[in-house]
Known about the structure:
Elements: H1 2-19, E1 29-34, H2 40-49, E2 55-62, E3 65-74, E4 89-92, E5 106-110, H3 120-128, E6 137-144, E7 147-156, H4 160-167, E8 174-177, E9 208-209, H5 217-236, H6 247-259, E10 274-278, E11 284-288, H7 315-319, H8 333-339, H9 342-360, H10 364-382, H11 390-395, E12 401-403, E13 406-408, H12 411-422, H13 426-429, E14 434-440, E15 450-458, E16 462-468, E17 476-479, E18 481-482, E19 487-493, E20 498-506, E21 511-514, E22 523-526, E23 537-543, E24 560-565, E25 571-572, E26 576-579, E27 588-589, E28 595-596, E29 601-606, E30 616-617, E31 627-632, E32 637-642, E33 651-655, E34 661-665, H14 678-685, E35 687-690, E36 697-702, E37 707-713, E38 719-728, E39 730-734, E40 741-747, E41 751-757
Parallel strand pairs: 1-6, 29-30
Antiparallel strand pairs: 1-2, 2-3, 3-4, 4-5, 5-7, 6-7, 8-9, 8-10, 10-11, 12-13, 14-15, 15-19, 16-17, 16-20, 18-19, 20-21, 20-22, 23-24, 23-33, 24-29, 25-28, 26-27, 26-31, 31-32, 33-34, 35-36, 36-39, 37-38, 37-40, 40-41
Helix pairs in contact: 3-10, 6-9
Amino acid sequence: MKQLITLTLFLFLFIKSYAQELYGINTIQTIEIEFAESNWDALLDAEKAGDNNYTEATSVTINGTIFNQVGVKYKGNSSYNANQAKNPFHIELDTYVDQDYQGYKDIKLANVMFDPSFVRETVAYNIVNQYMDAPQANYANVYVNGTLIGLYTNTEAITKTFVNKYFNSNDNAFFSCSPPDGAGPQSNDFPSLEYLGANSTSYEDAYEIKSDDDTDPTVALAHWDDLIELTNILNNDITNIENVIDVDTAIWMLALDNVLVNLDSYIGQFKQNYYLYKDDNGRFNSVMWDLNMSFGTFSMTGSTGPGSGGNLNSTTQKAQLDHLLHDDDSSFPLFSKLMEVPKYKRMYLAHYKTILTENISNSNYLTLANDYQAIIATAVTADTNKFYTDAQFTGNINTDYNVDMNTASGLTNLMDARGTYLLSQTDFITTQPSISNVTPSETTPLIGDMISITANVTDANDVYIGYRTDETLPFTKVLMTAAGGDLYSADITVDADYMQYYIYAENNNIGAFSPARAEYEFYSVEATCLTLTPGDLVINEIMASNETTVADQDGEYDDWLELYNNSDATLSLDNLYLSDDADDLLVWPFPSGITIAPNSYLIVWCDKDDDQDGLHADVKFSVGGESAILSYANGTIIENITFGAQTDDMGYARVPNGTGDFAIQLPTYAANNESLSIDEVDFNNHLKYYPNPTSNIVTIANTSYLIESIKVYNMQGQLLLDNKQTSANDIVIDFSDFSKGMYVVYVNDSTVLKIIRN
């Protein structure tokens, strides 16, 4: 009994520890690094000063899960110093071994050098994540060789894993917009997005390419060209800017940096600490990074004009940071060029006001800060290597402290005054459009239906709807029609199983969104489709190992699947999907417009060659057995056939045809599956056909049996000839009107011949 209790307790603790979310804000992570060498700190310092390669740790344990052979190095620019005990870490789990923790391979740990409160980074990321895709952040206690180094902020790394998670690809142009050698007053190479000409070498000191492919330098060059194209269009062709960057996300980033007085960013002197990733739609997406000096710690704006306040030397100056900082400064084109477009400026003001009212003027930032300090208070006290005292930890909520060459403003000193100041500015006092009663005419339309979206809007000159039927695509934006009074409407065809949409309205001064956090948040309409009655359409035969039976139109012997229409009506396959994976039912959608006539067959090639002509699904069967599933996007399953190990060149077919159980037998491609009788086997033994290949005439003969029917199909499963004979021992078929290629001939609805027309 004791052994059972011990085992049960062990399993409980194991499951509980592994279930701990790596970036869950309510739990402090435990990360333990073990080096074989006692001089590990010197080794990491040496690499940081040199090539900055990873040093191999014997193991890294994350919340009880052990990983052997792990790459570890120091990271950071101003936060790193060889003489301090608490330096920031970059842990790479898969440097030497392919391994990950909850899907994450890179762990970024910051040492909280410039933040007595310990909450600037986590609070800022919490706010940013309300409006755009951004890293998650929480805390971790970090130990090396059994010694506690201290409490760190643990921030999700912006890697190929990150962009694949949020932007659905990871092999396009990808840049860290921070100088590879670090930014500082000694350098003028900043990632400002100014156009510097067509040569990539002009950009390499300001941007670090993250998509570089050493095995194919042409890939890297093409990605540099993508970045150059962005800078050229931004600076010289702003009317086409939405083709190369997600403008809405860029505006959110610019507004967040300004509201949060985050000047170690694009809007500060060094114009850095963001990433750009180009998605499959050809648009760069902005991602914010390194928020440790937000809430007013960094003070250099980079402005040089009269009265511009290049350095904000007091908390009062930071609180009164101009919400349109750099709007007329060409060296900050991502802001100044966008603000030259009235619509983008109104969008910026709308987003800015949303952030301000949802997080600053209502003191949500302070609620978050107090909550996070309560979570980490004990860990902060235990951190003997921290850069500030326990009194400064709690005091920085309200009190300013000097940090290195900067001042960490008391959060309430800065943000309460900032909220009051901003809400007194003309841009935020002006009347804003009001959007209400956003309503679709149908809440569950059929796919393909046109629906009307209506909204009541006041104090607006123009009202737009943005919509899409695929979450990986940009929103299409069109003007809504004034329908009388305050009512606006737009007719949209819902051509997929869902539609996402939002409303944007603007007057001469400011815009408004509904939902307020659009485009990051949106309304949805879930569409349905007319589904087939189970049994009307069936998977009738599966060929999972086609070595020699039937070739497709390209002469390839691939897997195929036969569908059969049991009904007396023509069936549409619109909105239907084919899959071989029960966990992913929507692997391959049938092309629109495909139908099957009553009591007829349709062949789908299951070869993952969906770029070939005809019906070629992104599915390939295993000869060892798996599933073939027909379903709709709403989860309705029409067919789910699970099969075991198959035999080469044998079909897995329903017997009786269309309704029976499955059996392994000779294939009957696009024909009746009824089992061959002894007489039919004897019929085949006496059958002859010649010549093959042929340029025109083929003779099919059987001196012992009558040939009663001949059917000829092409490789797409289309019936070309249906010739019913009576009392004939030989048949002549003329192929001269057919195109060159392979054809399948069925004799007496059972014997299958392959004829080549040359």
